[in-house]
Amino acid sequence: MNGLLTLLVLLPLAGFLVNGLLGRRLGPVFVNIVGVGLPLAAFGVAVWAWRILETGGAEPLIETVFTWALIGDHAFEVSFYLDRLSAVMALIVTGVGALIHIYSIGYMKGDESYARYFAYLNLFLFFMLLLVLGRSLLVLFVGWEGVGLASYLLIGFWFQDVDKARAGRKAFITNRVGDAGFLLGMFLIFTAVGTLEMDQINQAFAGGLIPAGIATAVGILLFIGATGKSAQIPLHVWLPDAMAGPTPVSALIHAATMVTAGVYLIARMSGVYLEAPAASTLIAVIGLLTAFLAATIALVQTDIKKVLAYSTISQLGFMFLALGVGAYAVAVFHLFTHAFFKAALFLGAGSVIHALSGEQDIRRMGGLARRIPWTSGTFLVATAAIAGLPPLAGFFSKDEILWFALASGQGGSVWLWLLGSLTAFLTALYMFRLYWLVFLGRSRMAPEVAEHVHESPWPMTSVLVVLALFSVIAGWFALPHYLEGALPAPDLRFAWPILHWALILFAVLIAVAGVFAARHLYGNGGQRAEAIEQRFARIHRLLAGKYFVDEVYDRLLQRPWRWVSDRIFLRLGDRLLLDGSLHGLAALARRGAAGLARVQSGSLHWYAWMTLLGLVAVLIWMWRYV
Amino acid sequence: MDDTTLLLALSGLLFVLGLVGVIVRRNLLVMLMFLELMLNGVILSLVVFTQLLGAEAGAVLVFLVFVVAAAEIAIAVPILLLLVRTGHTLDPGAYAGLKG
């Protein structure tokens, strides 16, 4: 049916407008109906569109909405493009999005800006769908910036707290750095290819008409954009701070959907990256480094949401590793499974925080498993899924990534695989550390907090159950196989099934080893872990300080820039040159007027003198020149 | 030096005399008189040129100027009277506040 994709995109926008304009007046019940109903409807429409796509034999649906601009021969059209890749993304965005909206009913209950919250959340969905469904890079970019805006608004949702408002600003500014790369990449593509429609760009690059140098430059520039949005080194610093927002926002935007936009972008532009092996290698290396370093930081964090934030960065690193070795579909597969278990983890964390009346420090938790069984059970399932225990979702996707890191014909190597496996081990370790510290062992809660521990209301727990269920079964969909037509797959360096099975076995062993290591270290009150902490105090400080990246940026970038802004732009440019010249002009006019005003003194004799002088001057002039 | 030159010189002299009087005297009534003197100087030159060129329109203009001058003085003197009634002085410097 024509107009279906447009409807899909516009539904959340309608929710934003209605709730944003009228929500305060119409009350929470109405806000719920609009704010949750429309995302659910959008999910329904997404499923419908997906059915149409499948009955049409996976032939991409293209829907042109209007022509945005006509410049010379170039038409910039706003059109939507639904192939299997964008269908998967749209289903994740609307499906997980709708679930998190339902969860938010319980979590945000009683907040004074309830309507504003749902308005922003719907706005996010609108821009995310624009990003995922846009056919042209331009539409994708509008969505890209829009989700950045929504992210900024929601991180700083409780803006009365200055730290939270500042976290929002940090996210926004860090993303601008990446966006500069994205824009330059777009300009370069337009210069080289003459269009911004992504399917045509891929065809042009695959046709081999574009020089390899341009492909590499485009690849690196777009990847810079992706590092900003997807929090990869060196632009990862905003994501941990973004946890200042409400927890469902962290789950939806900063774990399941928005931060995966970079992965989607690179998968979508796979035609470019096939021609740019150097850029692909860079992606693999950066991705793996991010995965590893973020995992090490996650080992020692003490804030439940910070652990999950670094875990998100680490998992995104895994996805980029897969993209870098050419296994685009596998990256999307991990994106898919990660969306469920990470959303479950974040929402579980939100439920824990809710139960403990706002406590986020895992050193003051413990023993919660029996007090809040639903949260605990679903959290355990999601933890096992992200750790890669079979047969849960994370096992399948992570195992595929590690296999391609070793066996891909496009830059797979033993080193990538080794470091990736080590990171997988760390993943299991830090996730089960978290589980042990929060839910098992003895309670370390403050007595007044412990008294009030309560299971969350049904809108929250039911969503947790659904997400936990998907954390189990999401890996059973053979997504890479499903995406074969939409995304290229790499050749294998060696296609020995035995090796693949051995690697799977090894991956399982590693995950189990991580679990046992966590149990060994944190099982009996965490004394062993503390002993290690004290023994390697310097390493612990380095990790707890997040490698001091923020401090380095402060020294190297922020302070010089602040100096330049203050001295040159503010004092010299703004105050001295701009203000100074205008003030000077005004003062000149004022002084001139004051001088002339003195001529009109009111003294008749003075006027007569002036008349005489004038007469004499006229006479002299006439005598000389006439 | 013929008559015309003499008469024109006289007219110029009258004008300058009037101007200098307006400038140096500090009495409004006297200043008005000197103003009339300046006007007479100008009118004298007008008459001389009318004779010289034989243009009758000039003679008419002279009477017109007389009428205007008479009307002008008829307005100026009452204004002066009103001023003096409030300010009690004929010194123009006392009325400098009227500059607006």
How large, in whole angstroms, is the Cα Rg of chain A?
A: 30 Å
Q: Would you tell me the structural class of the helices and strands of chain A?
A: mainly alpha
Largest sheet of chain A: 2 strands, antiparallel
Question: Percent of residues of chain B in beta strands?
Answer: under 5%
The oligomerization state is heterodimer
Order of helices and strands of chain A: HHEEHHHHHHHHHHHHHHHHHHHHHHHH
Strand content of chain A: under 5%
Spatial arrangement of strands, main beta sheet of chain A: 1-2
Percent range for helical residues of chain B?
over 70%
- Average pLDDT confidence of chain B is 88
Distance between the termini of chain A: 91 Å
User: Largest beta sheet of chain B, briefly?
Assistant: none
Unreliable spans of chain A: none
How many DSSP H or I helices of chain A? 26
> What would you call the shape of chain A?
globular
Low-confidence stretches of chain B: none
Q: From the alpha-carbon coordinates, what is the Rg of chain B to the nearest angstrom?
A: 17 Å
Shape of chain B: elongated
Count of β-strands of chain A: 2
